[in-house]
């Protein structure tokens, strides 16, 4: 689905991608980076996002937001994990962003939704949209 759309010039947005495997199974699980790389070569080949946006906020705030969304419902299996699990996951994503700054933008999500949306839009604009000729400096 992704490659045919890209060949047609269509933008493709993914909620998670190979980085999730790297963070969950690699950093927090017992799967070696070599095996993850091999699986990635088989499943997606050389396909990589042009831009990865990583929304970052303190673990406690993320869990509070999840609880507020959930209301009186039961926490899912990830929400029920220990604080150390979530801290490890956050660090794994932050490391991915630090290791691949040309592809990844780490966005502070510890703000109201409109502010965070503005930060996401700025990252999209700055990384993916062409600069108008009238703005180019020589």
UniProtKB/TrEMBL annotation:
<dbReference type="GO" id="GO:0005524">
    <property type="term" value="F:ATP binding"/>
</dbReference>
<keyword id="KW-0808">Transferase</keyword>
<dbReference type="GO" id="GO:0006235">
    <property type="term" value="P:dTTP biosynthetic process"/>
</dbReference>
<keyword id="KW-0547">Nucleotide-binding</keyword>
<keyword id="KW-0418">Kinase</keyword>
<dbReference type="GO" id="GO:0006227">
    <property type="term" value="P:dUDP biosynthetic process"/>
</dbReference>
<dbReference type="InterPro" id="IPR027417">
    <property type="entry name" value="P-loop_NTPase"/>
</dbReference>
<dbReference type="GO" id="GO:0004798">
    <property type="term" value="F:dTMP kinase activity"/>
</dbReference>
<keyword id="KW-0545">Nucleotide biosynthesis</keyword>
<dbReference type="InterPro" id="IPR039430">
    <property type="entry name" value="Thymidylate_kin-like_dom"/>
</dbReference>
<comment type="similarity">
    <text>Belongs to the thymidylate kinase family.</text>
</comment>
<dbReference type="InterPro" id="IPR018095">
    <property type="entry name" value="Thymidylate_kin_CS"/>
</dbReference>
<feature type="domain" description="Thymidylate kinase-like">
    <location>
        <begin position="2"/>
        <end position="116"/>
    </location>
</feature>
<protein>
    <recommendedName>
        <fullName>dTMP kinase</fullName>
        <ecNumber>2.7.4.9</ecNumber>
    </recommendedName>
</protein>
<dbReference type="GO" id="GO:0005829">
    <property type="term" value="C:cytosol"/>
</dbReference>
<dbReference type="GO" id="GO:0006233">
    <property type="term" value="P:dTDP biosynthetic process"/>
</dbReference>
<keyword id="KW-0067">ATP-binding</keyword>
<dbReference type="Pfam" id="PF02223">
    <property type="entry name" value="Thymidylate_kin"/>
</dbReference>
